[in-house]
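Let us practice reading a record.
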Amino acid sequence: MTDVIEQARQALRTVYDPELGLDVVSMGLVYDLRLEDGRLVVEMTLTTPGCPVAESLPGQAARAVADALGPDAPEVDLRVVWDPPWTPERLEPEAAAALGFRR
């Protein structure tokens, strides 16, 4: 079943923040992917609770995962979490460099 988790992670790399032009995995917005009670749980956050894409980005992420996994895959349960809060330290090195953050 780790194939399912890796497929989900790769699908999430196709979901981009429209303002920053970076995918949600590179941005460090995906906190956890796990199988739980026959469902694929995706825990992700947003950069801020007032994020302009707060209404649309989680749905896009859930659809991308469901589409990538196909009809026989587990149900996707996407949960937006706020703890811990997102910080720029969660950015992957390439994403941090693209945004001008130094590590």
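A brief commentary: Helices lie at 2-12, 57-69, 93-98.
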